[in-house]
């Protein structure tokens, strides 16, 4: 087996319009495809993230995440940015609260956390 990269990350949104606005307008991700699947009463939005994608889904009555961020399963999604300080400033200017910046004790890189509309923990890393 020769795994080369992550193809996509799938996220289920409780409020599709709100999450679509967040990922496209706040984070600036490009829409690749958007489809409504009537048989599932569900939207599927494919967003470009470098060489990978985020699949944003809507489903009627999705269950809530049990706890955060220490629930079993995906802990958080981390984005690499070229200009860390500018990215934080941009998020803050768009009304997204970021945690205080921390330094990774192993790599020395700076990082911070913020949340999407469903409180999914997201991270920025320089």
Automatic annotation (TrEMBL):
Stretches assigned to the VOC domain: 5-126
CDD domains documented for this protein: VOC_Bs_YwkD_like
Keywords attached to this entry: Metal-binding
Molecular-function annotations in GO: metal ion binding
Stored InterPro entries: Fosfomycin_Res_Enzymes (IPR051332), Glyas_Bleomycin-R_OHBP_Dase (IPR029068), Glyas_Fos-R_dOase_dom (IPR004360), VOC_core (IPR037523), YwkD-like_dom (IPR037478)
Pfam families found in the cross-reference section: Glyoxalase (PF00903)
PANTHER family attached to this UniProt entry: FOSFOMYCIN RESISTANCE PROTEIN FOSX, LYASE, PUTATIVE-RELATED-RELATED
Record protein name field: Glyoxylase I family protein
Lineage: Bacteria, Bacillati, Bacillota, Bacilli, Lactobacillales
